[in-house]
Amino acid sequence: MSAQRDERFGDFLSRQPERLVINGFRCCMAGYDFLDVACWETGWQCYIGEVGHEQARALMGELQFWVRTIRYSSQKSVSYDPQGCRQLCHDECMALSAISAAQGSDAVAGRMATRHLIGSNDGGSIDGVWTATQGFAQALVSSGQPLYPVSAAVVQSIGNMQALATVPAKDMN
User: Fold this and answer.
1) For residue 161, how many C-alpha atoms fall within 13 Å in the half-sphere facing its CB?
2) Are the CB atoms for 109 and 133 separated by under 8 Å?
3) Quick one: three-class SS letters along the chain?
4) Residue 81, Cα to own-chain centre: how many angstroms?
5) How far apart, in Å, do the first and last CA atoms of the chain sit?
6) Distant-in-sequence, close-in-space partners of 161: CB < 8 Å, separation ≥ 6
7) Using CA atoms, how far apart are residues 142 and 148, in angstroms rounded to an integer?
């Protein structure tokens, strides 16, 4: 992110709810990808530092189930940035959008974000991830961690940006 963009939009991850979702997502995904318990331990310590032991325990259980469900259901490689990165990649935006939509009981936006996140139109896969998303979203609400609301139009806009970024370049010959 450029300095100008930071000034205009602020630091999105300065908000605790979004930071909890993204840091947890990154740590859990890395833990599975690298089979390194240190990744999960980093996530656990982050959550304890943010919300204390009791809330961390409840949130981490739902987070772990959500990430496992995403990984099991995904038809593509799910992207994420390294822990501590101040930017969000496409899949992280979709993960946040799905959680936000679940907190707002917006199944249209949530299922759309889920479809983009897992790269599948399979109703069973989307249903499974959406159910896990709702569990984590509710645990966040119960811990006083509401995310910024996200509409279906925003999710579609993020999806369109990703589609434009993956359009192959025209043949220059």
Assistant:
1) 10
2) no
3) CCHHHHHHHCCHHHCHHHHHHHHHHHHHHHHHHHCCHHHHHHHHHHHHHHHHHHHHHHHHHHHHHHHHHHHHHCCCCCCCCCCCCCCCCHHHHHHHHHHHHHHCCCHHHHHHHHHHHHCCCCHHHHHHHHHHHHHHHHHHHHCCCCCCCCCHHHHHHHHHHHHHHCCCCCCCC
4) 11
5) 34
6) 90
7) 16
The reply to whether the predicted model has a pTM over 0.85 is yes
Per residue of the chain (173 residues), what is the pLDDT tens digit?
Answer: 333 333 434 577 899 999 999 999 999 999 999 999 999 999 999 999 999 999 999 999 999 999 999 999 999 999 999 998 989 999 999 999 999 999 999 999 999 999 999 999 999 999 999 999 999 999 999 999 999 999 999 999 998 887 776 655 554 44
Phi and psi for 172 in degrees, rounded to 5?
A: -85, -5
CA-CA distances (angstroms) from residue 7 to 19, 132, 166? 19, 35, 28
**pLDDT score at 164:** 72
Give how far Cα 130 sits from Cα of 13, 33, 66, 98, Å: 23, 22, 9, 8
